[in-house]
Amino acid sequence: MGINSESDIEANLQIGPTELGMVRIFVEGGGVELPMDFEPDEADEIAEEIRAAARTARAATKKKG
Q1: N or C: more exposed end of the chain, with fewer CB within 10 A?
Q2: Coil, strand or helix: which one is 12?
Q3: Mean of pLDDT values over 13-34
């Protein structure tokens, strides 16, 4: 399965700070729980990657419409 493959799998996503000063992305679905902890600077980088992907997706949608 790649980034462009659709899936019917449902999952829950939670993002928040931990008591140890980390940022946790917690994914739960299909009987799997996946906690991923990041330093705040890493979380900032991930957030920028998400924003960049959103800009690219938005631009691609405008080109099609």
Answers
A1: C
A2: strand
A3: 97
